[in-house]
Amino acid sequence: MGGMAFSYLYDRDDCQSIDCLSLFDKENHFFLENVSCRTVGNAIENNRNSFSAVQTGRKHVAFNLTPSQSIQLEDYIQAHSCGQI
Predict the structure, then answer these.
(1) Which end of the chain lies in a sparser environment, N or C, as judged by fewer CB atoms within 10 Å?
(2) Which domain holds residue 20?
(3) Continuous H helices in 1-85
(4) Is this prediction's pTM over 0.70?
């Protein structure tokens, strides 16, 4: 409920500063837009294949949800997870 981590294709200019994002799950018809967030961690991952020019990063963000967004996300997690939140 408080945030998430995700991997991304690293580009020096991309994904450095994120203050808002949208969560989308096409399969379960879920879309939560304009989620305010702040970066709490960001790391460039070591490339396991030395022949690849593609680098990936891993970003950790903390959410700042509105009350409505909080309810929507909690309902989504309750409906699509196996454990308690």
Answers:
(1) C
(2) 3-79
(3) 67-79
(4) yes
Domains held by the chain: number: 1
pLDDT in tens, the chain (85 residues): 899 999 888 776 555 678 999 999 999 999 999 999 999 998 887 766 666 677 888 999 999 999 999 999 999 999 988 866 5
Hey, what are 8's tokens? Answer: 């991304």
* Tokens representing residue 1 in the block: 């409920």
Dist. CA 22–CA 20, nearest whole Å: 7
Six token digits for residue 29: 């018809």
Report the C-alpha gap between 8 and 44 in whole angstroms. Answer: 9
